[in-house]
């Protein structure tokens, strides 16, 4: 059993919006998923801040978290959690880096950085290939991972992803994205044990 | 007479047959060099030998792969590890921090409060719990939130998370390897790392290590690709390498040495039959003593066996002396044999006395060697005297070969006694040199016993360091009556050691109580949790200010209610479980009590005195530095061996005095002999070779040879012919010895090389000195070109 199961799917949830806002940014007036995916690669740099609300069976009310999201073309992604705990997750090509605070009986609290190769971890690889399917605009491949349903208009749209792959189904019931125009504004993930996490995103740079 | 001879020959033949049977059925060569470590005489020594011999780590192999890109190395490491596991020859093969299984995690969860070390009371105070609950919230939001969730309801203070990172990272608390993709790397990511532990049953370690190391090499060939390099080091690999070297050396050098001797003897005697007669006593001696050693020890050491060929150096002389002087006249031959036997007997006796010093030495390996040589010599001498003349019938002894060489040596031999004084000068100069030289004279450190090169050892050290294994050899050993008492004592020393870490004297330390607290700490933990209602109240207060639902920690309160004040951990049960097994390195039965090891990391050599002082102040604590302690051990035994040698010298003198019925004549034998030994020692030291235990062994052999030569040179030559015969026999003996030992200098095993160099040089100088102190023959009337002794028995 792994203590550091690096929750690849949280990762998935982190990366997905970045991919999607780039995707949506290039969307045509005719808001359909198939039409949106062609121009996403023109995005070079995205910097955004998020405020998250995480509900849990343990909590009376959701816990707020804050952080930063960064995307650099073609394949660098970073999520930095700033509160209530400091932690950085970074993808660079095929590498995943996690920098976090560890608790140890002897050493007390200390910061540890771990590195993983995405392609050699089944769980991670699944999540990342789902993301890559988006990035590549490969709608057919997306169908391997999700049942997608897109609705709404350019000013207010919604995309719901229901996982079908085994790896993703183990953790998530549903992923929902809502946006306006080119930008993804709200990402909601619902876990298998009914915990809901909502990220509200504000953009600093969008190039 | 005839019947007696037949009886003797039959007896020897039967003995050889029995010996061959023993060798055939029981023959087993050992190559474990620790038998050349002395026997322990005190507590510290026996603990040290336990660590050196059967230490838990003696089955470890440290491996690095390098020469490719990082990603390729990761893949290679995975493949290599997987294939090694599949061989089934390893107890474990590890290339990343071990994850605990759910059963082990359950154990930690159940015993989380017993296993905690400090701070429970603070954490369960009202303020403490407030902070802890805040940390749980953070944990749930973090990337390991999914994992934290599992224990949250039972563990509001996160004890399990603390214990997990402690127990999962078990190699050492001090240093951990770099990690890429979960796989271990050296700090610069040039080499990817793993280690393997050979699965072995006691008694068959070396065989299993050999099989495992060979399997490892073949697995590497399977994954090999251009550029990929493997370095494997560690006790198991070294043991196998030493074994391979010793076995190869013994095989190659024994054959080479014997072949050279045979060729030489063929050149001299020009008869295969005679050569066969000459080597038969030697072979008989080797066979019988090998069988005897096998009977006593169950196995024979490779070095002992290699030393067997050193018997050739001495034992070949016996038949040569017996055969060389044989006359055509049968009566005269009998007379010759009788006469030569007087000297030969004395030679055998002197050599046996010299070698007996080994039998009483403190080194297991030397005892074996001494016994082997003494037995071999006695058997060879007996054979030469009583069996050989009987079977040597109807043959021509023609020592016509190399006649010009003989003539040259003879002229030299007749001239040399004029320079008698040179021996004394050489003796005095050697003593002065050895006393005054700035060079290191004696090398006692254990490294001098090890055939592993310094570069190879350094590779092992680097690998251990990169993997975070303990190295450097500094440790503390705590003795007590029970395991719990050991834990309590090590906890006491932990405070002191923490101070030393803060001051930078040491980098860190590992001990069992870092994982398992003593009962008194467990007691303290349990009593911190004994006031159920108080803790419940504290928790409720903390919950009021947190986001957690009030009911979240109900399972914890239930556990707390059921927690008994005396529910101590069963340490023996833990040590026998997969989770606790690694702790056996730190905690083990010792004699009637228990011993605990504290491994010290990064001790600066200059500051080791702190530990020497610490040991002096505490009766229950031993400070051991593996190298110095082992060196002390060697020194201790060398001193007793040296005493035994000194006593042997006096016994020798006594024997010779009785034999000659003369007080001064023994000196004529002993002075050139010991002068030769001392000159050899001086030459070795002057060429930068400090004397190790193996050099001493060899010097003793030089003394044995020298005594033989000197005795024969001192036989009063009644006539020129006899002088000639004796002289010829002597130089043939000398050359065979130099040939046999000269070959040993090509050995890659340092002990064998040391023996070869010392004896080859020693044989030459002994021969030279003995001939300088030889009795002078009458002036020859005319030059005899060749000695042709045609002997015919009928």
Features:
heterodimer; A: 207 residues; alpha+beta; 11-stranded antiparallel β-sheet; 11 strands; B: 794 residues; 5-stranded antiparallel β-sheet; 4-stranded antiparallel β-sheet; 30 helices; 63% helix; elongated
- Biggest sheet overview of chain B: 5 strands, antiparallel
Q: How far do the termini of chain B sit from each other?
A: 15 Å
Tally of strands of chain B: 13
Shape of chain A: globular
Structural class from helices and strands of chain B? alpha+beta
Q: What would you call the quaternary organization?
A: heterodimer
Termini Cα gap of chain A:
42 Å
Approximate shape of chain B: elongated
Largest interface: A-B, 38 and 46 residues
Report on the structure:
The complex is a heterodimer of chains A (207) and B (794). Chain A has 207 residues and is α+β, with helices and mostly antiparallel strands. In chain A, 23% of the residues lie in helices and 47% in strands. Chain A has helices spanning 8-25, 33-36, 122-135, 139-145, 166-169, and strands at residues 45-54, 63-72, 76-83, 87-92, 95-104, 108-117, 146-152, 157-163, 172-180, 183-191, 196-206. By secondary structure, chain B is an alpha+beta fold. In chain B, 63% of the residues lie in helices and 8% in strands. Chain B has 30 helices and 13 strands. In chain B, the strands form 4 sheets. In chain B, strands 9, 10, 11, 12 and 13 form a 5-stranded antiparallel β-sheet that branches. In chain B, a hairpin with a 2-residue loop joins strand 11 (587-590) and strand 12. The chains are: A alpha+beta (207), B alpha+beta (794). The interface between A and B is large, with 38 and 46 residues.
